[in-house]
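Researcher: We're teaching a course module on how sequence relates to structure. For the next exercise, students receive a sequence and then see the predicted structure as tokens, so they can try to spot secondary structure elements on their own. Here is the exercise chain.
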Amino acid sequence: MADNNSCSPRYSGIGGQAVMEGVMMRNKENYAVAVRKPDGEMAIVKDVYKGILSSEAAEKIPIIRGIIGFIDSLVLGMKAINFSADFYAEEEEVKEKTEDAREKENAEKAEDAGEKTPQVMTAKEKQSSMGMMTVLVMIVAMFLALGLFMVIPYFISLAFSNLIGSPRLLALFEGIIRLLIFVAYIKVISMMEEIKRVFRYHGAEHKCINCLETGHELTVENVRNASREHRRCGTSFLLYVMVVSILFFTLIDTKNRLLRVGLRIILIPLIAGVAYEFIRLAGRSNNPIIRSLSLPGLMMQRLTTAEPDDDMIKVGIASVEAVFDWKSYLKENFNNDIQGSP
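Model: And here is the predicted structure for the students to work with:
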């Protein structure tokens, strides 16, 4: 019997993200979002995203490509999430139509009695306002993230400045606080039922990619037996952003507190670019040292992924097949030695 992890992973170039009741997969400029609708049917949308800066030259420049890739992942991720959320907005629209009919009947009765009725926003009006709300939510979320993970740990560390004399040791202590806040944040949100399901789809996404990159056919049985941890995962990226920030922040040498906070925020794109380069290298290399350095990120993924059921796996497979010719990939990379069922 073949083990689903028996082959050394071969880079496929595909990546993805879990969304609300679904999975988004991207292969170069093509991406697809597969979603399990409330009625149990599966919906798939395929589109092209060229990125905020579709320049081949920029993609070859280390760090810069990481900054661009980070921004692209945020933009495309929000588009995928909005697509998946739309199906549940449609379900609400059906419910609201029924409720609107009842309210209309009640309104007519109220008007006959000489009463004024409140204005009711339709589902379409709600969806039109949803776009602006999404932008506002993203802006607020970014400021909250900056405060939670970059600013608050700094001010907490200041409370211990008298005990820790060395500025570099204080920066290290600040980094440890940042890591603890990050882990605590993941633990808290993982208690929410909706997030638990997203984490299961996250597991399905990883399992589909790992199944292929270890030389196995993309079947439900093979995916089920694949690992749910992957070295190119966004969770690992965020963890290494935290680690790299410790190294960078120890270099900030100024006593002005406002300037220290400002420099922390300004350095975030550079830190993200460096973390991206490591994740990129980890996803393409089987070097023992790189694999060892990847272990903390893989351990963190145990918090952000969970075992999917077969229906979730089918959604992940459908998303892959919409953008990736996995049979040709297996034939080219595994010398026709395609692994069957474990």
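Model: If you want an answer key for the exercise: The radius of gyration is 24 Å. The chain has twelve helices and four strands.
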